[in-house]
Amino acid sequence: MAKQATRESYGAALAEYGADENIVVLDADLSKSTKTEVFKKKYPERFINMGIAEANMMCVAAGLATTGKTVFASSFAMFAAGRAFEQVRNSIGYTNLNVKIGATHAGISVGEDGASHQCLEDIALMRSIPNMVIINPADDIEARQAVKAAIDHDGPVYMRFGRLAVEDVNGEDYKFQLGKGVMLEDGSDVTIIATGLMVGMALEAKAMLEKDGISARVVNIHTIKPIDKDIIIKAAKETGAIVTAEEHYIMGGLGSAVSEVVCENQPCPVKIIGTDRFGKSGKPAELFKEYGLTPENIAIKAKEAIAMK
Amino acid sequence: MDAKRKTELAIIANKVRKHALTAVFSANSGHPGGSLSIADVLTLLYFEVMNIDPKNPRDPERDRFVLSKGHTAPALYGTLAERGYFPVADIPTFRKVDSYLQGHPDMNKVPGVDMSTGSLGQGVSAAGGMALAAKLDKKDYRVYTILGDGELEEGQVWEQAMFAAHYKLDNMTAFIDFNGLQIDGDIKEVMNPTPIDKKFEAFGWNVVLCDAHDFDALLDAVNVAKATKGKPTAVIMKSVKGKNVSFMENNAAWHGAAPNEEQYNTAIAELDAKIKELEAQL
Questions:
Q1: B160–chain A nearest CA distance, Å
Q2: Are B233 and B174 in contact (CB under 8 A)?
Q3: How does pLDDT run across B40-61, given as a tens digit for each residue?
Q4: pLDDT per residue over A71-122, tens digit each?
Q5: Where in chain A is CATH 3.40.50.920?
Q6: What is the DSSP-derived secondary structure letter of residue B162?
Q7: pLDDT over 70 for what percent of chain B?
């Protein structure tokens, strides 16, 4: 299976779908890392380097969007969602302008750069902004199609991409639908709801659980907001236990979003897997292990959730 | 500008001041001081300079205006109402729960507002985005923005100052309302942003100094900006906070405080007297 970082998919998709003259791509001196340089090479006249100034970038993006442009504003998740939060909130979210935030290097899988660059709170931050759509793709094909969906959607979108190469979880014929979760595997005892690179681990966890005679459903939630309530309620009803898995802080992310849906509609045990503290330097695989972002831990938590039924 | 036109604009500006005070008085909150200091430049822009049509507020070819110092929405609303974007009668609904006249400008609610502002430093960046859009689309509309002098303490302003110069946004003009006062007092005591002219010059801008209450000087500044190629222009306007209301002039206490009924009546009477005086000159 192919292995590619979703940031690569972002750059490739911008180049692939960027023919529309209305599209403008901004980057804050990170085009080589965010991969917007792929777009820049193809459409240099519509690529604007903003320098290391994310606050200004978000508001320039908003200003461009007021004239009818579809604007991509790119940086690392830490600076796009973190540093420029209030600019995103007031100039993009509140105004409901057509700005797409391409946030790469999200999560602990950034690895060696350490905690200062491992953004583990962006989903929580972006979820708190009305009008904001949040997409966290699991693999290359999903990421590419997410970029296309973001172009087609009129309004602000936050797209979360990773630095680490990940294996495909979706097939060649995969069709991305904004706001729709995807049941990758059916099961009856528990549902693993995962997002981003945790989806691949969820599939591995399912195989582990199967050996212990446990039937796990696996659901990929690529659109964290608006979240697919139906697929979550159905999982709660039919399997009676849920484990969520995300490369994000345990507060405010996918686990919180799923819990909100479950609590209000179909209460059942929910175990949340994510980080519980700041990250640190290390190889991604080492960090996944230390922070419990592993198929093994998903399987353990799945059993705990089942025991709580 | 001929004397008659100047007098006409002065009358309009004082009507704008009345609307601003009516808005703040009706809401019992808002920002009168900085609204009164920018009434003249807003009047000049909307009645003399900008290519706009109140009947077609979203015309893609129009000139743009962004009130980066969004808290002085009362002056902007007063100007837009006076120009015909919405009824003057709606001014007293400012900040009321069912009103479209939000406490700070909302582009999705108020006809004529080109960008939602209120969080300082952001409007000037959005104005830069609009100016860049004009360049990308090879359109000749111009973008105007007004910043407060206290607003210059926001670091983002200087990110945009770098950007606009770097991309040679000569279609962008930023007016600085240099009234010398911010909420906590004298700008030089709170966090001195001066010398403002040298800062913008150092960032690569064309800089014009003028009196914020002299229509000839303001119009000259606009024309200098239009004639300047390859650089954005900063017009540093020496202004009087609370202009034309005797007890509000140069008093930081009126930055964000509403007048009581007696004060409101006094202020309106002073402005009415000025308008009467000006009308007599016509």
A1: 6
A2: yes
A3: 999 999 999 999 999 999 999 9
A4: 999 999 999 999 999 999 999 999 999 999 999 999 999 999 999 999 999 9
A5: 182-307
A6: H
A7: 100
b/e map of A125-144 (b: 16 or more CB within 10 Å)? bbbebeebbbbbbbbbbbbb
Nearest to B126 among A91, A94, A96 (CB): A91
Kindly list the catalytic residues of A.
Answer: 54
User: Residue A216: left if φ>0, alpha if ψ -120 to 50, beta else—which one?
Assistant: beta
CA A83, A88, A90, A91 torsion-angle sign: positive
Across the interface, whether the CB atoms of B126 and A48 are under 8 A apart is answered no
- pLDDT band at B250; cut points 50, 70, 90: very high
- Considering the four listed CATH numbers 1.20.1050.40, 3.40.50.920, 3.40.50.300, 3.30.160.620, the one that applies to the domain covering A182-307 is 3.40.50.920
All residues of chain A having their beta carbon less than 8 Å from the beta carbon of residue B155 are: 55
Q: How many domains does chain B have?
A: 1
Confidence band, pLDDT 50/70/90 cuts, at residue A67? very high
Instruction: Tell me the pLDDT of chain A averaged across its residues.
Output: 97
Q: Where in chain A is the domain with CATH 3.40.50.970?
A: 3-167
Contact B119 A96 (CB under 8 A): no
Domain containing B214: what range? 3-281
Distance from CA of A212 to the nearest CA of B (A): 56
Summarised one tens digit per residue, pLDDT across range B126-176 is 999 999 999 999 999 999 999 999 999 999 999 999 999 999 999 999 999
Which one of B62, B163, B166, B171 makes the best mutation probe of the A interface by having the most chain A beta carbons within 10 Å?
B163
- Which CATH code for domain A3-167? 3.40.50.970
Q: What is the least distance, in Å, from the CA of B232 to any CA of chain A?
A: 15
Contact B126 A53 (CB under 8 A): no
A66 vs B115, B156, B160: nearest CB: B115
Count of pairs with CB atoms under 8 A, one residue in A, one in B: 101
pLDDT at A2 over 80: no
Assign residue B93 the CATH number of its domain.
3.40.50.970
Helix (H, G, I), strand (E, B) or coil at A134: strand
Cβ pair A46:B132 closer than 8 A: no
Q: pLDDT confidence of A1, banded at 50, 70, 90?
A: low
Residue in A closest to B132 by C-alpha: A64
* Collapsed DSSP state (helix, strand, coil) of residue B232: coil
* Measured CA angle at B11 (ends B5, B16), to 5 deg: 125
* Residue among A305, A82, A106 nearest A214 (CA): A305
Helix, strand, coil shares, percent, chain B, to 5: 50, 10, 40
Hey, are the CB atoms on A64 and B163 less than 8 Å from each other? Answer: no
Distance of CA B21 to the CA centre of its chain: 15
Chain B residues within an 8 Å CB radius of A67:
60, 130, 133-134, 137
| pLDDT tens-digit series, residues A253-285 | 999 999 999 999 999 999 999 999 999 999 999
Contact A64 B107 (CB under 8 A): no
